[in-house]
Amino acid sequence: MGDVAGGARRGTLVGMAIIEVSGLRKRYGGRPVVDGVSFSVDEGEIFGILGPNGAGKTTTVECVEGLRVPDEGHVRVAGLDPLKDRAGVTELLGAQLQQSALQPKLTVREALELYASFYRRPANWRPLAERLGLGDRLETRFAKLSGGQQQRLFIALALIGGPRVVVLDELTTGLDPHGRRETWELIEEVRNSGVTVLLVTHFMEEAQRLCDRVAVIDGGRIAALDTPQGLIERATGSTVISFVPSRPLSDDELAALPLVRWERRKDDRLVIEGDDASANAVIALLARQRITVRQLRVTDATLDDAYLGLTAKES
Ligand SMILES: Nc1ncnc2c1ncn2[C@@H]1O[C@H](COP(=O)(O)OP(=O)(O)OP(=O)(O)O)[C@@H](O)[C@H]1O
User: Fold this and answer.
1) 220 C-alpha to center of ligand 1: Å?
2) Whole-angstrom Cα distance, residue 34 to residue 122?
3) Does 67 sit in the ligand 1 pocket, CB within 6 Å?
4) Which pLDDT tens digit goes with each residue over 253-287?
5) CATH annotation of 17-226
6) Relative to the CA of 56, which ligand 1 atom is closest?
7) Ligand 1 pocket mutation pick from 21, 27, 59, 61 by most atoms within 8 angstroms of CB
8) If you measure from the C-alpha of residue 57 to the centroid of ligand 1, how many angstroms do you get, rounded to a whole number?
9) Which atom of ligand 1 lies at the shortest distance from residue 52's CA?
10) Is residue 234 classed as helix, strand or coil in its secondary structure?
11) What are the residue boundaries of the ABC transporter domain, all occurrences included (predicted)?
């Protein structure tokens, strides 16, 4: 696999924290939007931040980038304070630009040359552009690129300083499923080249596929932090069983079963999350009560199920 970071890879110490956030708080107009967030990201990880709209995700990562000043708390990137060691952090952290930050008339080549000029030791942008599939688009203006090409250019610009960490905030929002999958492969290659990735996303499938660990932020606080599989097991159990019963099951009947969670859908479908013991208990209850079922489905739980369970009160 090619080195997507353009050969900028340095030795990594997998398992060492490269980002440390502790007791982070930020208020706007007296309202806490980040309310005591702590986490650390190991070098070489893809670390995801998930959460509902307005949960405080962007505020948190912008404090990591040194773009916002926390009211309280402690942030370190490779041991540096992003506010006090601004130049040092800029050299080692690549941030994805917001769309509006690029002039529509700027060509891909001009953008790459311009951003390379910001760094003392930039990556060689030509192989980077090739690797990101932009080699034949160098003279194309930003406004004429497809959504997927624009996202690839943002990844290239985030990598051009040869960073050890990249922060990608909702990178695949607005992409079609094909473009999203291509971007996922690129993010995996970025990580495989040794760069640590801090990824803010709304897409559970994206987090499940890419992230080594995920923090779910809700109401400015960390609701859960684990591997995607750990979150799934903790929040939902491992299995989702759904069916339309010939007569409704009562809340009391359901409460007596060893389930993690259940939900009634509009079409009378009952969705039950649990484990093998839950599945057996449901089958036994149905047999005892002579309830038949239609459209029975048994599937593995996903991060989507876990997320809905973890953020259920607010959503
Ligand atoms: N500069 C600001 N001034 C006042 N309020 C702000 C400011 N920036 C963010 N907020 C508010 O802080 C809260 C958290 O915003 P933030 O952008 O961090 O959330 P988010 O989790 O990234 O949301 P989304 O998923 O919608 O991007 C929101 O209610 C937002 O309106």
Assistant:
1) 10
2) 34
3) no
4) 998 988 877 888 888 899 988 888 888 899 999 99
5) 3.40.50.300
6) 18
7) 59
8) 8
9) 25
10) helix
11) 19-244
Instruction: Give CATH 3.30.70.980 domain extents, the chain.
Output: 232-310
Counting every residue written for the chain, the total comes to 315
pLDDT, position 2: 47
* Mean pLDDT over the full length of the chain: 87
Asked if residue 263 lies in contact with residue 271, where contact means CB atoms within 8 angstroms, the answer is yes
Confidence band of 100 (pLDDT split at 50, 70, 90): low
Q: How much distance in Å is there from the Cα of 51 to the middle of ligand 1?
A: 12
Average pLDDT over residues 18-45: 96
57 lines ligand 1 (CB under 6 A): yes
Distance of CA 177 to CAs 182, 188, 254, Å? 9, 17, 37
Residue ranges matching CATH 3.40.50.300 in the chain? 17-226
Separation of CA 219 and ligand 1 centre (Å): 11
Q: 243 burial class (0-12, 13-18, 19+ CB within 10 angstroms)?
A: buried
Find all residues with CB under 8 Å of 300, minimum gap 6, and list them: 238, 239, 240
User: In this structure, which residue's CA is closest to atom 24 in ligand 1?
Assistant: 53
- The complex's ipTM works out to 0.96
pLDDT in tens, 163-206: 999 999 888 877 788 878 888 888 998 899 899 999 999 888 88
- Going from the Cα of 214 to the center of ligand 1, the distance in angstroms, rounded, reads 20
- Please give the Cα distance from 234 to 309 (Å, whole number): 10
CATH 3.40.50.10680 fits 232-310, yes or no: no
Question: When comparing pLDDT for 64 and 238, which is higher?
Answer: 64
